[in-house]
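Purpose: get a first structural picture of the assembly so the mutagenesis plan has something to point at.
Setup: two entries, given in the order below. No constraints added.
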Amino acid sequence: MFTRLPLLLFALGLMVVQSGCPSSSEYEERKRQLEQKQAEAQNADPKASSDAGLQEFTPPPLEELVASVEWEDSRVVDPLELYREHLETKEQLATVDEALSLKNDSEEANAKIMSALGRMYESKDQVNFDDELIRHAGVEVKSTNPLMMSSTVEFDVVGMMGVGLFSFDWNMEPLALSDYVKSWKTSKDKLYDMVVLRDDMTWSDGTPITAHDIEFSFKTIMDPEIPIPAVRTGMEDMKWVEAYDDHTIVFFHKQSLATNVWNCNFPIIPKHVYETTIPEDKTMANSDRHVELESDPVVGGAYKLVKRTKSEILLERRDDWYMHDGKQVRRKPHFKRIRFQVIADPNTQRLALNRGDIHDLELQATQWVTQTNDEDFYKLNTKVRGEQWVYYFIGWNVEKPQFTDVKVRKALAYAVDYDYIMNKLLHGLWPPCTGTFHPDSWMGPTEARSPYKQDLEKAVALLEEAGWKDTDSDGIRDKEIGGKKRNFEFVLTTPNQPWRVDVCNSFANTLSRIGIKCTVSATEFTVFQEQSRDHDFDAIFGGWGTGTDPSTTANIFKTAEGRNYGQYSNKRVDELFDLAKLELDRDKRAEYYREIDEILWDEQAYCFLFYRSAFYGFNKKLRGYMFSPRGPYHYAPGFDAIWAAAK
Amino acid sequence: MFTYLVRRIAIGGLTLILITFLIFGLIRNMPGTPLTLDLLDPDVDVSPERIAQLEAAYGLDKPWPLAYVHWLGNAATGDLGKSFKQKIPVAQVILDRLGPTLLLSIPSLILTYIFSIPLGLLSSARAGKLDERIQSTILYMLYSLPSFVAALFLQLYLAVRWEWFPLYGMTSNNYDEMSSLEQTWDLMWHATLPVICYTYGSLAYYSRFIRANLQEVLRQDFIRTARAKGLSPFNVMWHHAFRNTLIPLVTMIGLTLPALVSGSVIIEGVFSWPGMGRELLQSISERDYPTVMGITLVYSVLTLVSQLLADIFYAVVDPRVRIDSK
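Result (structure tokens, whole complex):
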């Protein structure tokens, strides 16, 4: 027996090595392809230097720069003040007491509750500044390092501890935060942004926050050897960031683009902490010091981390954020402590909200409709909803023979049973979507389009026109393509959440009545993403959130871009995206984007379906919330406006 | 005995290599990488250069059999690597979660035996009578009740309606300020509902198991002798019959060792209990390869060890069985 063992092991070893060989040739092939792609990218676009890192650049002296450039003032804003001004233009439709006793079962009730409870306070004694807010997270926070933020949970939690100079308001207009910025000037040609920082900000260890921290953060993000997961698109359009002194910083951009302002918005880390630790450990995760910093980070924002376990994160208000040298220099953050507890199960989350164990919750559509209408919910909470610019669509892989013809795509748009899906499955709560830009946005269509309505006769007529007829009477349409007869069959891939599968099944059902065989394939979310990226699908049921600037949609609809999963390609659209990128005038840009939107709608690049509304449950003690196209939190003032009423 | 042990350990080692190799191959070849979900945000750069850079940082540019050999070499020296997502050593991840899982599974195991043994004895003694039938029916109903349904009802009534127990989590918000005694009590209070969910289903199974074995033993001649000698029914049942049912029972304990550590994805999910079950599921969907492999290794080792222990127990408990004769 013993002699057989080493033989077995040897055989296993051989197997491993042998199986390594064919893969290793595949691997070599893939490596060669990637190197080729990189070389092509570099040759085609000399600006693609992200692989080589930052190019060396000597900035001119500050006086020279200031004198030689034509400057314009840019917006430095206190978002809470901005919000108060905005509220003055809105009528309060009910008193607070009325609103708290209402049940949110109609548009009218929703409007009343939002307008009463979304108010800011008149005087400070209306606010309970000692309140502890308990929020929840669906998954744990993986890293408290602002450079490593990659999930929504991390944006929520780490964002609260972080310091950032720029943000955007509920109209998606960029602004600099007066909490940190004294003045902000942009050059007329958009090549330079000059910011003067305030001099009364400190990190949580007492060291002052200076322009050098910002310059250091930029250099760290652009360092090709540091694996930052979520570097923003557009950062390679930045040429340089120079801190001329402790409080003056200039951002240098490579080209005159209207979108340059968005590139200045990157996370900031303390230079005095990381300049010594990063050279030893470029992963920012291995060295003992880095591990220590994960549970006790040095932060510059309004809250600091006091406790971190795998089920909970506790943040506490930093007195040294709003006080400086004994004087109050900023608004006092509304909550004394903020607790994030990990609750994975949506039903437990809802029960926790009912009990008052957590104080806010994003509700799912079913929870909104059927599970939050009773006394148990309304005892401690109320709920509100608002529009969000997140839309869902059916994405066609236009390289597949079934979908290359526009007529076919239009036919399919006529086939969807909108009434059933939107009014029954989705309870009539999600408005229809008729294009990639929302009609309320500055780049959206000037007149709202009317959405497709189900019209099976039109659908059939278009299909017949496109050559898809049932020639062999098997119930499925067919067509001769490349000499072979092909049936009109396809697989509709979707992530396996029940509501998505229901929507897809409804579509497949309708299609079977007009002679198209559609099979719904529900897959794990990660697999869905991977298949989408590799164009390994016929059609997908997906959704997109909105970027802050419409130029981010180029990544989705321009030929061969990273998120153009369906391989849609239109030369005029490509041209328009390029023109809009270089155009500085807002109105002209809007025209370009409107034309893109028209084309995408005409050509049915996607079958645009509906927008997802945001549904939130809030504890009755909370006030000051308002919805933006990105929900109630992720804009300025967003979460910062929310306060707890004193009893 | 010694040669037997050595042989079993050697075969176990081989099995371990095979299992880990298979799992490694499976997860590496699953579509999706640790980066896939990171790239969801429309504002994030997805250029091929960026992706290649990140993949190199994760060690994904190597072919997977080579990566497996690297992993095996490291694991043999005790280095299970670092979790991609959590940036801490995998060993740390596992240890962090082992405690909570054991906190639920060990009390559950103890309670299961404490309840099932008397239930089994009782149902055997009163076999065929009405009260025994009722008891069996109730136990079967419990057995068929899915754990997530039970969890939901327990939450709804005991936690939300009557507020006797906490709804989720392992500790209260002011845990850090408590004394050690209060902390222990707090943990027990939080563990109650999950432990109930873990335990109730197995009561039917174990008590039927004991009952079936007892019926078997009671048919033996030596029991008839004991009765003929005039021993009380209790004496017969407890001193003579029950001991002989210990044999399969003890081997069962050995085999349930892996279950102690694996935790339950559902119960841990519903109660937000930071245990091993949820960790494995999450690691898989995040494609956190080192963590998946670390947890797989722990489970595999435990399964093999527990099978070995079960076999040894069997030989120890039953004098009729000799290991060498196997």
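Residues 316 and 322 of chain B are 9 Å apart (CA to CA).
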